Structure to design on (118 residues):
């Protein structure tokens, strides 16, 4: 998908409210995590931060979300360049998965080193 189409999708106003709600859902999941979860303080702080104001947080995350491979594939499968149609092709489950997948990186949680995972 060309960058111009990805940019149009990232700016699609019909996707922004869904992103806002999906971020709030994931934030609530993080609040319920055990405190021993790797990176918990940073993950919890991001959850607290993204809930106020939600529109600004959603807008800032849109660019990172629309380049998530599963979201790109769903948008491309719509077989159109219309950003609203591409946004509609993205399921709620795909959107939630993309936010879950990127949460640690956005929160600043460093990936585990190979020695930490062994």
């Amino acid at each position: 998908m060309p960058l111009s189409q990805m940019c149009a999708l990232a700016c699609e106003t019909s996707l922004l409210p869904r992103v806002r709600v999906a971020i709030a859902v994931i934030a609530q999941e993080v609040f319920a995590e055990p405190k021993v979860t790797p990176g918990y303080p940073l993950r919890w702080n991001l959850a607290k931060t993204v809930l106020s104001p939600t529109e600004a947080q959603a807008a800032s995350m849109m660019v990172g979300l629309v380049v998530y491979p599963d979201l790109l594939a769903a948008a491309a499968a719509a077989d159109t360049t219309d950003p609203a149609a591409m946004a509609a092709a993205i399921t709620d489950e795909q959107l939630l998965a993309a936010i879950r997948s990127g949460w640690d990186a956005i929160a600043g949680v460093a990936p585990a080193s190979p020695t930490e995972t062994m």
In short: Residues 13 and 98 are 18 Å apart (CA to CA). The helical segments are 3-10, 16-31, 40-50, 54-66, 69-77, 83-88, 92-107, 114-117. The two ends are 38 Å apart (CA to CA). The mean pLDDT is 91.
